[in-house]
Design brief:
2 domains, single chain, mainly alpha
């Protein structure tokens, strides 16, 4: 990771900094920070035994608000690629930066899955999970950034369509082991089958991984759809809000209809799931864009601060949460358990509300951390 303090840059090149601030689209930073905040909230309840339904993932088919969070982040990864690389040349230096960032994300993800507080501080190799959230972000970023640099929007659209249709055909029509393929959590499900045979024991569950190998292909499409929205945001068109609303409604409708034959499913990251989540992402971003960039309302600044160091905030929250679960402070009670039981659990509060309050506290802490880093002009590039 690279720590950058912007004080010196502002002093040495104020005109460039002023121009960059003017070109900045506030809603994108707010959307990114809001997504990270929600990722932290849904990942850190006080207890997994008492969580309100909207903060749980769907059991298999279908989706909840929680299932929107990760695809929202991949969508905004695509949007951010437009801002970061629209003036870059597809040369060796740019490729090197993309590769380095990809490797950082993948290695940080593997580190999160492997670290333990007990010497030698890493899980046995056979128990390390290879896929993960940061790993998927890294792979998706790599593919989307290269495609953005080397293709025009027509080719990018064709690639997106091919990915989504090709994944549907692969998952729903190509036989596996002499049997028709299934979209359930069974051996003749292509995504599950590939994960088990490629990763072996290095998966989230013995029979599947929600950030698995095959399902990363449509996850790339989530970022590519974000690129199209990013292209609109940097364009000179005057009706950006209306475009995002129409695109969001169209994607949501198309995904819902497709879901009748190819169910909306986060664990499999089905093509219908890609369209539905991109639809909601466009609708939410359109609202934030209208309030902040069009009407110039002071809205969601705390999320903007976190969005400026999004990966850093997410990594720290995941790492500290892992420590809190592993470090024992009382007999059979971890730091996490002790804090939750002694501060948040009360007879007059429903357990699910106590659990939510714990998660909100954790989220609030990392939002404040993002604010502190932003005010100090510390931006950690991953």
């Amino acid at each position: 990771m690279t720590v950058r303090n912007n004080d010196q840059r502002e002093r040495t090149n104020p005109e460039k900094q002023t121009k960059a601030m003017k070109e900045r689209i506030v809603s994108v930073d707010i959307f990114r920070g809001l997504t990270i905040a929600l990722m932290i909230l849904v990942n850190t309840p006080g207890t997994w035994e008492a969580v309100y339904a909207p903060f749980r993932h769907a059991e298999w088919h279908g989706y909840t608000p929680t299932d929107l969070v990760f695809p929202f982040f991949l969508f905004i990864v695509g949007t951010s690629i437009v801002f970061a690389y629209r003036n870059k040349q597809p040369d060796a230096a740019t490729h090197r930066k993309i590769i380095v960032r990809t490797l950082k994300l993948i290695l940080l993800g593997i580190f999160l899955g492997a670290f333990t507080v007990e010497p030698p501080f890493f899980e046995p190799f056979s128990e390390i999970r290879f896929p993960g959230v940061l790993q998927r972000i890294g792979v998706v970023f790599f593919a989307a950034a290269l495609l953005f640099l080397h293709t025009n929007y027509k080719t990018l659209l064709a690639i997106t369509v091919v990915i989504l249709l090709g994944y549907w055909v692969w998952m729903a029509f190509i036989p596996l082991g002499g049997e028709p393929p299934s979209l359930e959590r069974v051996p003749n499900n292509w995504a599950n089958y590939i994960d088990v045979h490629v990763f072996g024991s290095h998966t989230y569950k013995p029979d599947y991984d929600p950030e698995g190998l095959l399902s990363t292909l449509p996850a790339i499409a989530s970022a590519l759809l974000g690129i199209f929205t990013g292209r609109v945001l940097v364009s000179d068109r005057a009706n950006k809000t209306q475009w995002m609303l129409l695109a969001g409604a169209a994607l949501l409708a198309a995904g819902s209809i497709w879901g009748l034959v190819f169910p909306v499913n986060k664990a499999l990251w089905t093509s219908s799931f890609v369209l539905v989540t991109a639809g909601w992402a466009n609708l939410l971003l359109a609202l934030i864009y209208y309030l902040t960039d069009v009407k110039k309302m002071q809205f969601g600044s705390i999320f903007r601060y976190a969005g400026a160091n999004a990966i850093t905030v997410y990594f720290l929250s995941s790492f500290v949460t892992s420590l809190f679960y592993q470090i024992q402070v009382d007999e059979g009670l971890s730091v996490h358990g002790w804090l939750f039981r002694n501060i948040y659990v009360h007879e007059f509060l429903p357990l699910a509300l106590s659990s939510l309050l714990y998660g909100l506290t954790v989220m609030g802490f990392y939002l404040l951390l993002g604010w502190w880093l932003y005010r100090r002009k510390i931006f950690i590039k991953v």
